[in-house]
Amino acid sequence: MTAEPAPARSGESARGAELFGLVEQLVPINRSWTGAGVRATLALLGRRLPLEVHEVPTGTRAFDWEVPREWNVREAWIEGPDGVRIVDVAEHNLHLVGYSIPVSERLSLQELDEHLHSLPDRPGDIPYRTSYFGETWGFCLAHELRERLPEGEYTVRIDATLADGFLTYGELFLPGETAEEILFTTHVCHPSMANDNASGLAVATVLAETLGTRRRRYGYRFLFTPGTIGSLVWLSRNEERLGRIRAGVVLACLGDPGALTWKRSRRGDTLADRVFERLLADRGGDFSIRDFTPYGYDERQFCSPGLDLPVGRLTRTPNGEYPEYHTSADDLTLVRPEALADSLAALLAFVDVLERDRTFVNLSPKGEPQLGRRGLYSATGGAPRQEGFELALLWVLNQSDGQHSLLDIAARSGLAFSTVADAADALTDVGLLAEERG
Questions:
Q1: What is the reported pTM?
Q2: Of 105, 108, 168, 255, whose CB is crowded by the most CB atoms within 10 A?
Q3: Distance CA 258, CA 255 (A)
């Protein structure tokens, strides 16, 4: 992570503080694929959003997968030979391997060591580990602590249940003027990591709140699902409506100080791909555009070949590329209010482009219409803003043949989309453009 987000303006500073406060509330919750932690997370978000909470029973098929048993943990700890607890999930949720089975045993250090996980290259950090499908158990701890463990007998206690229950996910739909939908989805399963993915949950929540107050051309659907299995469950239950999705974004890792990164959809040239490539260039500063790979977060489910949806992914530093990833060092010190606000601002800009993009027809296409008498050319040239606006007027007039959208025109001209859209509004107001409805 080498980039820093631009300094926040006053309104963005307030929004950043709001987002950071929500991240602070989300971090302590012990989330997993299923269980009380997911429900507690959705209940917290539900204080701000009218979420519809779905409960899908264990054993329900989701393409080649099925909903696993529900896992809940009450306590989990290891006591050393002296009776002192050396590891306790009550102190940090990452200490327990996710989906560990119940255990109550006394073990030698050698026996215990087979169930311990640590990071020799980050000796002070606790790793994040899961075992969703193996009947096993384990604990994670700092490597420097692991190396100091003395010989002797250890007491291990995992008071957990792994039984038939439910997979829980949240959904919110904000209807628009058309039947087409824009999808935002974020994973709700990672415990006690601020960037991955309390940041995504916070940004998605405030984005949904903001869009809920606006007039909307598109419908906007927000999903808060456990990673992988949650998106597969939703997709398998909603195949009939997938054709309505015009664009989609997977949201994750949106609070670190790295530059914004757009990962293209499998197709590589969908509406979401084109919008993000344009708006990130328009915003200036550092950013990254990456091609699709079938690895990462839930974009790989939405972009599987049998579905091939127009969904990409927005992060700051991508998963696995910052040293704190999937460790206890992914804490509140990693997440910056200004980075959260910047991520939200980019997503709101994305929505603005979607809402304003149109295809027009020039109603005076033979030669260049006289713009001066319509008040669209300045009597005295030279102002930089006016020059850019006047050039946008000419580009819009030239390209508005019913075949090129405003986004197409912005890409070809190299002008900011907002300038092109403002020019189209001005030309429409004076009767020189009409929207292509076909």
A1: 0.94
A2: 255
A3: 8
